[in-house]
Structure formats: C-alpha cells, structure tokens
Design brief:
Blueprint (H helix, E strand, L loop, with lengths): L4 H13 L23 H10 L3 E5 L4 H8 L6 E3 L11 E2 L6 H4 L4 E4 L3 E3 L4 E4 L8 H5 L3 E7 L3 E2 L2 H7 L7 E3 L4 E3 L5 E3 L6 E7 L1
Parallel strand pairs: 1-12, 2-3, 2-4, 4-7, 5-8, 7-12
Antiparallel strand pairs: 5-6, 6-9, 10-11
C-alpha cells in the first residue's frame, strides 16, 4: 500500500535527492597499501593472544610435529582438499557434508591467504589449502597455519593480497560476542578455539 511507513520514508528521500542526485567523492586519504611491507610478527602474536587465540611458534621443518602436538587428544578432524601437509587420521572435505555433519568434527586444520599484524586478523579466501567457508566456521576448534611471508602490517596491505570476488572470511580470534552487560560468550557463530601455528 502506498502510505505504509516504508514507502513514505523512501518517497521523502527521493524528493529530497531530486531526479539526479550528486554522488560525493569518497575520501581515499588513508595510508596507502604497500605490498612489499612485511608484518610485525610480534605485534601479530600480541593481537592474537589479546583476542584469546593460542599461538604456536614453529618452523617449516617442525610444523608437522608441532601441529601433531597441538592436535593431541582432538578429533575427529576435517581438512581442506589442498592442504600441503598430512594430518594423520583426518577426513578430507569433499564439499558434500551438511552443517550438521560438519558439526560432528571436533576441529579443522587450514592454511590462510594472509594475516594483518595491526589487527590480528587472519583472512581465508576459499583456496584449496583453506577449503570452503563451512569447514572453518562449523567445527569447534580451528587450527590455522600462517606463514611469516603471509603477514602484512595493515588492512590496506591485506586488501592488495585478496581478490574481492573470492569467498572471504576474516577471523580475529575465536568466535565471540557480548550481551548488553558485556558478558562474553564464545562459539556463537564460529569456532570457540583458535590455534595459530605461526611458521617463521
């Protein structure tokens, strides 16, 4: 009906804007991204731990053994199809499992597309070593491998590394929210536990 509140408000907006509204220029005076900038690993660790994530410093040579230690007692596990290292006893996701079926897995192991030191944010883009979004959002524990060369300093630096048409997931610590009394609740819309294996 023509006089419902929504229609009235939209009509007033259209009348105020006129037939050819001018679109203002968007300010772009933020610090420009520099793809060559390396992120500060100590700052990333500080931010991740502040968000209640667990950081496991490791090296390429020690990654598999450190990951096995972090996974001790956790199972069953699901992994993306393109994970570049083995996770014994895990199930490779074939894309057919529903959210309810994924919920039966205790954890997921993925790599990442990039990470931001200043914000402690890890970006996934659905590449084969990260898998589809559901596997990183449904299981209760997320074990994420971040290489030092994937860490950038700021969000503008991150944006130069990502393709906006890919299915992006930005992770800043375990899933958490707070109610009006600031009581923190974890695991509402993603894993309650985030373990980052930082490969120097």
């Amino acid at each position: 009906m023509a006089d419902d509140p929504r229609s009235v408000v939209l009509a007033r907006i259209r009348a105020a804007l006129g037939s050819s509204p001018a679109v203002p220029a968007v300010p772009r005076d933020y610090r420009p991204a520099d793809p060559s900038r390396r992120g500060d690993l100590d700052l990333l660790i500080d931010r991740l731990e502040d968000y209640k994530a667990t950081v496991v410093p490791t090296t390429a040579a020690a990654l598999e053994s450190d990951l096995a230690a972090a996974l001790d007692g956790v199972g069953p596990l699901i992994v993306p199809p393109g994970l570049p290292f083995p996770v014994p006893g895990s199930t490779v996701d074939d894309g057919s499992r529903s959210a309810a079926e994924l919920d039966a897995f205790a954890g997921v192991v993925t790599c990442c597309a990039a990470a931001v030191a200043e914000t402690g944010t890890i970006a996934l883009d659905g590449s084969p070593d990260q898998g589809r979004r559901a596997i990183s959002l449904v299981p209760d524990r997320h074990f994420c491998v971040v290489r030092a060369d994937q860490v950038v300093q700021s969000v503008p630096d991150l944006l130069t590394r990502l393709t906006p048409t890919r299915p992006l997931t930005l992770i800043s610590g375990p899933s958490a929210t707070s109610d009006i009394e600031l009581d923190r609740v974890e695991g509402v819309h993603g894993p309650r536990t985030l373990v980052v294996l930082l490969v120097r």
